[in-house]
Amino acid sequence: MTIRRNPLNPIVAGVAALSLALSANSTLAEPKSYKIDEEHLSITFEVNHLGYASVIGLFLEGKGQFEYDEETNEVPSGKVVIQSASVFSNHDKRDEHLRKEDFLHSDRYPEITFEVTDFETNGERTGNLTGDLTLLGQTRPVTLDVTLNKAADYPIGHKEYTLGISASTTIKRSDWGMTYALDPLMVADDVHLRFEFEAIQDEGWF
Questions:
Q1: Surface-to-core class of residue 181, CB atoms within 10 Å of its CB (0-12 exposed, 13-18 middle, 19+ buried)
Q2: Burial environment of residue 64 by CB neighbours within 10 A (0 to 12, 13 to 18, 19 or more)
Q3: pLDDT by residue (tens digit) across 62-103?
Q4: Is the bond leading into 76 cis (omega within 30 degrees of zero)?
């Protein structure tokens, strides 16, 4: 009995193997979702006052999540939401003023948001993260300097895979219409922002 070999079989097998390889690579390159651990999130701001010294404050309430592909260093999406009324500068009257119309106008604009639009690496663990910052109802692009401090399974507690990240930028508050005390200059236009946080690998969005 003669068995005839189909000349297409090697081609079909090759295509199948290539498809499996591409599928495997695609799986490896799939971005993972990370949720910011609110217990390990610090959002600080620094603004010079009258040229004498800088006022340093915090936003005490914020949350966020993003997607990150560790193989390709891509950040296809992400969002951080900050409660503007959670501002804290260790001075009750000043904090009350910061929540009013002159500054954050928290009654009308309770949330400050940042949504990721692009990420470019400039080092082994550093990069520039660009996104849209919405403040006082206005949206402007902002770029943050980002450093990935650590990526590993957490040694205590939840023991999930966790990223440790530092990010910072400087914005001009007048770009968002916050012009109080600029003329005469009592409170600087430049606001230095810094974010320190841990993010846990997570399957769902908040």
A1: middle
A2: buried
A3: 999 999 999 999 999 999 999 999 999 999 999 999 999 999
A4: no
Written as six digits, the tokens of 170 are: 């400087």
The residues, any chain, with a CB within 8 Å of residue 82's CB and separated by 6 or more, are: 43, 59, 61, 62, 111, 112, 113, 114
Tokens standing for residue 34: 């990370």
**In contact, 99 and 108? CB cutoff 8 Å:** no
Q: Which two tokens stand for residue 88?
A: 């804290």
| Tokens at 140, concatenated | 């402007």
The 10s digit of each residue's pLDDT in 125-172 is: 999 999 999 999 999 999 999 999 999 999 999 999 999 999 999 999
Mean pLDDT of all residues in 29-51: 96
| pTM higher than 0.90 | no
CA end-to-end span of the chain: 66
